[in-house]
Amino acid sequence: MSISTQSKSSSSSQRNTLTSGQRPKWLVPVVMVGAIVVGAAVSALITFSVASWAIFAAVLFLIAAPIAVTSIEGSRKGSDAALTYVVYAAFILAVVPLVSVIWTVLARGVPTLSIDFLTGTMGGITGLIDQRAVAEGGAVPGGVLQAIIGTLVITFWATLFSVPIGLLTAIYLVEYSNDGWLGKVVTFLVDVMTGVPSIVAGLFASALFGLILGPNTRMGIIGAIALTVLMIPTVVKATEEMLKIVPNELREASYALGVRKWRTILKVVIPTSISGIASGVTLAIARVIGETAPLLVTVGFLNTVNWNVFNDWMSTLPTFIYQQLMRPVAPTAPDPSTDRAWGAALILIVFVMLLNLIARLIAQAFAPKTAGR
Amino acid sequence: MSTNLSDQEQKQAGEKPASALADAASAGGRAGDKIFSGLSLGAGIVIFLTLAAVAIFLTWQASPVIEIPADEVSGGNGFLSYVYPLILGTLMAAIIALLIATPVGILVALYISHYAPAKVAKPVGYVIDLLAAIPSVVYGAWGITVLSPALAPFYNWLANNLGFIPLFQGPASATGRTMMTAGIVLSIMILPIITSMSREIFVQTPKLHEEASLALGATRLEMIRQAVLPFARTGIVSAIMLALGRALGETMAVALVLSTGGLQWSLIRSGNNTIAAEIALNYPEAFGDRLAELIAAGLMLFVITLIVNFIARAIIARYKEFSGAN
């Protein structure tokens, strides 16, 4: 009975018995085309837009394709197909915002960029100037030099504080703690520190200096302290991972030659893992350079260049973006402020991406050769 | 024999000055060892002190809140009635973000670990990391200028057609700067956390379990349900908890996107607020009692995220003990 049906189906459709009962190759593409066409129709019923078209087409496909597969291959293959399509859809869904963000930053930031924008400051830029710029057209008045310098200086100080502390803590955890209770406590505290919300770090630094120097004190160094709190756990984690993969044979060889432990760490362990540490630190810098909330409550706003973190308010790229968007210089003509915000956002993203790229290059160029991988 | 003996004699003779030298060197070396181990221990202690200082200074600066008369607190009904709408708003934003980011994040992790060809998987991992690298203020700016206007018509539709549900009660915000938008922006920001942590665990699933399942004729879906998910369940839960901690504390996306206001259930009207956004919006101009209020609210946030992170870490610790991974 079963043999006869098999031979019948194979002879009628000219297909191999092995592939009988499987969906034909054209099925899914046909369903997809159908979903796109019907999606366009449904979207046109409401007001047509590319976004709603894409959404309707995707939803229709995700419903119809598994049903079509189920009708031929049964529910097990049908649900398997459903998961496959949902997984691909989720991936596309995750990439869409990324593309949109980067496209928006490029499209709105690039026209603003100019030598004047990069080397000018906001000193003397008033609402009147902005209104005139809107009325007459031309380049966006003002610049971001003060914010670039502020960001670099504050990040530099934060790095200066957090790298030695983070590095030494990681050395303690890997080389000295011997899995003792203190090592476990420190590991736990580092984990807790990773979870501190950035605004709380800012509040802490502000409260600390508020007690010493009086409330509402704003200085670059306070922001640097807040960023340090956020940066230390990242540095510790990255360094710890790198120190752990240094083979124990290297340490033992060094001890066998009579070298002291601290010399072994400085001359053998750290040089072996330096590339990983350097890339970890670079990634940590990339993470804090974009932090906004802690700087908002600690460094204030400023229109002119200030190199000194120990005196006066400062401007940074993230807070500059926030300020220009939320409080335009000319409330009646916000366009120049919005343009400046996007210009600054582009510069900030370029910084972050450069740091990420540098981290990858360091890691790749000097990667220690581990055995068997 | 005699040559051997003379060799030994020579060694003994030669050892004396050498060992004396070593002693002299080790005097300096021992001090170096002590200094270095002291320094590294000190760094560990600095971390402890920093965290203690965070708790102590926040509590100290927030303590005036207890003494402020109830009618002088913002809102005029005491600190608790000031802070609870903020806490609810914070939870609301975080829950919306989690509801979106959890399924998408896990599916993307599955895509990378089990669906994408090996050549594609690595660049995709980079792309997801890129998502994590974009500063939050840029997401916030994107949320105002691109996402909010794009979602406004959709909110209008929701208010017209599903307005009977309290969550979608109209009239919808014309600008689209609502709790829903803030939640969506947050979900994009926490997606990389869920994806990268889940992916790491999915990849660690024992290959033999997967192959055994497939060899019994399971489809890929069944294999994932039988082999991958049971192995990864605790890891996924802890990834979600860590993402929740991040979503609770995230400031800029909400501060920029949401047009803030009083507590309400409708997600598509302007209104609601979160602790972090309240602090960011008001701290720069605050002084005196208002400062104490905001710091007290920050302390609340600190405690909430601390609890969430504790739970996450506890789950991870259990997972490490039992799974045999790592």
UniProtKB/TrEMBL annotation, chain A:
Per the UniProt record, one Pfam family is BPD_transp_1
Compartments, record wording: Cell membrane
Concerning PROSITE patterns, the annotation shows: ABC_TM1
Alphabetized Gene3D superfamilies for the sequence: MetI-like
Sorted alphabetically, the keyword list is: Cell membrane, Membrane, Phosphate transport, Transmembrane, Transmembrane helix, Transport
Q: Which InterPro entries match?
A: MetI-like, MetI-like_sf, Phosphate_PstA, Phosphate_transprt_permease
Name one cellular component (GO) term. Answer: plasma membrane
Enumerate the spans annotated as ABC transmembrane type-1 domain. 148-359
Gene Ontology molecular function, alphabetical: phosphate transmembrane transporter activity
Q: How does it sit in the membrane?
A: Multi-pass membrane protein
The Swiss-Prot or TrEMBL record describes its family as follows: Belongs to the binding-protein-dependent transport system permease family. CysTW subfamily.
Q: What does the UniProt record say this protein does?
A: Part of the binding-protein-dependent transport system for phosphate; probably responsible for the translocation of the substrate across the membrane.
**PANTHER family linked to this entry:** PHOSPHATE TRANSPORT SYSTEM PERMEASE PROTEIN PSTA
Entry protein name: Phosphate transport system permease protein PstA
Species this protein is from: Kocuria coralli
In the UniProt record, the gene name given for this protein reads: pstA
UniProtKB/TrEMBL annotation, chain B:
Q: Enumerate the spans annotated as ABC transmembrane type-1 domain.
A: 87-312
Q: Identify the keywords attached in UniProt to this record, alphabetized.
A: Cell membrane, Membrane, Phosphate transport, Transmembrane, Transmembrane helix, Transport
Task: Please give the Pfam families that the UniProt record associates with this protein.
Answer: BPD_transp_1 (PF00528)
**GO annotation, biological process:** phosphate ion transport
Q: Where in the cell is it found?
A: Cell membrane
Signal peptide residue numbers: none
One Gene Ontology term, aspect cellular component:
plasma membrane
Checking SUPFAM superfamilies in the record gives: MetI-like (SSF161098)
GO MF terms held by the record: phosphate transmembrane transporter activity
Record field: transmembrane: 39-62, 82-112, 124-154, 174-194, 227-248, 294-316
Q: What is the protein's membrane topology class?
A: Multi-pass membrane protein
The record's annotation in PANTHER family points to: PHOSPHATE TRANSPORT SYSTEM PERMEASE PROTEIN PST, PHOSPHATE TRANSPORT SYSTEM PERMEASE PROTEIN PSTC
The protein's role, per its UniProt record = Part of the binding-protein-dependent transport system for phosphate; probably responsible for the translocation of the substrate across the membrane.
- Identify its protein family: Belongs to the binding-protein-dependent transport system permease family. CysTW subfamily.
What is this protein called in UniProt?
Answer: Phosphate transport system permease protein
